[in-house]
Amino acid sequence: MIHFLKLVRYKNLFMVLLTLILTKYVLIDSFNSNNGLSHFNFSILCISILSITAAGYIINDIYDIETDQINKPNSILIKNDINIDTAKSYYKFLNIVGVLSGVFVSFSIEHVNYSLIFFITAYMLYFYSKKSRG
Questions:
Q1: Which of 8, 27, 104, 113 makes the best surface tag, with the fewest CB within 10 Å?
Q2: Short-list 52, 76, 66, 68, CA closest to 125
Q3: Contact 59, 129 (CB under 8 A)
Q4: What pTM does this model have?
């Protein structure tokens, strides 16, 4: 379990979550309390963002294995602690959860076109990781 948490960079995800919560409840709600996003939908949106972000970290680590073996050989999780197939399964699962929960929120707030944001973000993280290697 600790290897998975390190793989998804749980400290970074915590900071993302904290930023989302502070932005919604301190900044946005202080100016506009009727923003159309219920507490439930906001929670689902947080799950979506955190899942897609975690998946992005995983795919980046998958494509950077060779570079990381040179630059930081002591901190490589994939291959050493988590095999590549398991990492790919985590990546797929987190992307599916992230995109589907984002689509759910988009439909719930009756802005179906917002669904594209989640698909595009997941694809761009994959594309960036694949093209930026080595």
A1: 113
A2: 52
A3: yes
A4: 0.88
